[in-house]
Amino acid sequence: MGIRKLFILLLLFALCSAVFAQRKTVKLLGVAVEGNTTTDANMIRLSAGLTSGMEITGDGFQDAVRQLWRLNLFSDIDIVVDREIATGVYIIIRVKEYPRLERVELQGNKKLKKSDIEEVLTLYTGQVINPGLLTRAKNSLYDKYREKGYLLAKIDVDQRPAAGDSSRVVVRFTFDEGERVQIKRIDFYGNKAFESGKLRKQFKDTKEDRWWRGADFNREKYRSDLDKLVAFYLNNGYRDAEVLRDSLYYNDERDEMYIDIWVFEGPRYSFGDVTWEGNELFTVEELNVQLPFSKGDVYSKEKLDEAVYKNIGSLYYDRGYIYATAAPREVLDGDHEIDLHFMISEGKQAKINAIHITGNTKTNEKVIRRELRIFPGQTFSRALLERSQRDVWMLNYFGNVEPAVNPVADDKVDLVFKVEEKSTDTANMSAGWSERDRLIGSVGVAMSNFLGNGQRVSVDANFGRYYQSYSFSFAEPWLFDTPTLAGLSVYSTRREPYYIGYRQVSDGGSIRIGRRLRWPDNFFRGDWIYRLDRTSLSEFSSYYQLYNPNGVVTEDWPLISSGVSQIINRNSLDRPEFPTAGSEFTLTTEMAGTILGGNVDYHKHTLRLDWFTPALWKLVFYTSFQAGYMEGIGKSAKIPYLEYFFMGGDGLSRSTPLRGYDDPLSGGTAIAEGGKSMLKYTAELRIPIAPNPTIFGLLFAEAGNVWPDFKRADPFSMKRSVGVGARIFMPMVGIIGFDYGYGFDRLDQSGNPDPKWKMHFVFGRSF
Q1: Domain holding 242: CATH number?
Q2: To the nearest whole number, what is the mean pLDDT of the chain?
Q3: pTM for this structure?
């Protein structure tokens, strides 16, 4: 046998011996632990997986060490054989523990408060201190300094044994914060199509230092701004544009940063021919309409994505093809034109498998389901899904309504409406005492979702020395589980002449029936109300006796009104409390007397149009138009004084509100004469402040007036005002707010111009 063969045999024998040694098992007769001062010995044994009586190999000992390292409690771990006998071995697990934290000391921090640093560190007394933990804490502090603009801050971490306890340490962070770094200049190189100033404007969060703003540097926001820069090029025809490289450097004092950016623009492309493949549901003409560009238009990645994901995707999604895709293939021709070939995969039409309602802790499920416009078994429609969400929102029972589409098969989906209950009940109770009014107060409750069934109940009582009013109303919006409203109300009012110049005694009630309509569209509804009222006015003040507005003093009281009102309403608002889109139209026609009985005869008509339009950011532009006209019926017709049109003030009485003026408009006399015609225009810019509870501010301009009859109505003779205001929707209280308006056309009691500001408080009305 040659020397070479002998060497190979010896090598194989050595390898086999090593493998055999690793696979050979021994029995543990005892496991001791040394070096632990705070860690329980049994926990160490269990974590290592070593117990007396077990059989273990050399690999097992290595696994035990690895498992102990994973605890991050020890700086050193050894497993040694204490003694060996014929039946097994006794071993010792020797560990050296990391110290535990006694306290943290901070030195040199001026720009970061101690509370801010502690929030970042999240270190606590008794915590095990290891190098990895301190490194992570240090990096977190660096991130915090970068957020503040201190990019050159330096942090040193050291530790020393705590006095009297060698197992604990004091960790000290020493800060060299340096100066806050501001971006002095951003320069671009390689740009020919756009000026550098135009490119700088694409950076939303990375700006140059100016006297009116700071220019802190945030690396993540900077990277995001670079992506915005490339997107700007892609949306302006430069399909090949990219950022080649950038350079960030400082001045000698290291408090100013300079950024240089090199870009590659490439040629400018335009859209070319468009072809389609795989479309069966829609024709080529129908698909071409969805493209927000035409042949020859400048290439835009944003418009291409809009066509694919928004327009074409929505087209199929609305028909129930929720899995449909449109993949554009871009083909470059020789004239820098991009031809597009859309590959359509329509998939199967999805149907509704089931609809689930979650989150309704108070409202009965049927109250929500009856508002839905989409049902199990129907073909999925996003338009019907969004309409269902809107109708549930308009109940005004929920702070949030979130629909979700969950696929359950390639042709079936489940819908989930997740609602968040909010307080829908309002209550008030107040009492007081004064020498003039004696005991005064009010108590009332309004429940718009009574017992979770959607019924509306309201009870109110107001009392004082000169005023008492009591009312009760009930409404069932879904009579016999049909979209039919039925309701009734009764009231009684007593007013003494101390405040208003006459004594009033009114008693009455009404019954109401309403129905949702499907024509002209399903946003319409109609309501019909029969009202019976008996009112008597007496003990008129000297001013009323002098002016006798509308013949109120010489009227043959009491007057009994028996009338029917028809209300046609169309409401497409998207939200009940803070609408951002949609409109509301209301036409009210009332006829009293004649064949209906009573001793008054008149007809009255009011029209109101409200529009909500989204503006910049989250601002909402609100406009409103109101008009009214009434006339008596017959030669000896009577119109109750309180039924005339009045305007002015905050609208808490019978008047149509007109901010910046007294309630009601008096026309320069002490007593207001009601009108038979009325006009009012309003424009508001609403600024959202908080969503829950809803809070918003507003700027307004409005104009309005009333006239004795229709012939004298003049839309160019209006009382004008401007101002500011705010609204808040409070649980258990409802809407409260204020308006501060300047009336341009105010008159004093002598009829002289008296423009000035006036404060108004608002309760129960948002617009």
Answers
A1: 3.10.20.310
A2: 88
A3: 0.69
